[in-house]
Amino acid sequence: MSGFMSKTFAKYLRLGLTPRPVRGNWRGGEDMYSLWHGSIQYCIDDWGDYENDSNPTYLLECINMRSVIIERNNKIVAEVFSYLQERLSTDIWVRVNGGSQLNCTFGDSTGPLAHLLMDFIDRESFDSAIERVKGFITDIDCSHIEYQEKFMLMITSVDSSEIFKYYTNPDIDVVLLQ
To answer: Residue 52 and residue 146: Cα distance in Å, rounded?
Structure first.
């Protein structure tokens, strides 16, 4: 964590938020702060951007994404969070990521365990993302790509796949590494 005497910490306070140290942080999370919601340790990590160039864009985007995820998908995030806590008996963090698609990363002191890809902020964001992909892929027919109702949980390693091999949720497709 970059510290309580940093510009980033002061920015959170000016925004009316009270960040806390991340429980179970990993060595790559030195710029992460946790903003708890109930029993879930949601984290924001701007990778030091605000500290280095005072540009709050990504920081504000992640704070907004956290609010949207809590509003729309907190129940599913809480389920995955609880599943991990039960199996690992350690502190779990949920890092909110920016972008047009709602997504977060679950991790512990060893690092990221899985990425949960959720719905897009709105239908226009989905359509825009598809158009960008179509621009890169000119030799493949993309007309069959449709808006997905299910979320995707992408596991980050073979070891993490062992943790998730019995996880089931009708609203989530789990992608295990073999």
So the answer is: 40
Give 10-56 pLDDT, tens digit per residue: 888 888 998 998 999 988 888 889 999 999 999 998 777 778 888 88
**Spatial separation of the C-alpha atoms in residues 63 and 21, rounded to whole Å:** 16
Measuring CA to CA, which residue among 72, 129, 122, 128 is closest to residue 96? 72
Pull the structure tokens for residue 12: 């959170």
d(CA 5, CA 2): 8
The DSSP 8-state label assigned to residue 83 in this structure reads H
Q: Which residues contact 10 (CB under 8 A, 6 or more apart)?
A: none
Question: Rounded to two decimals, what is the model's pTM?
Answer: 0.82
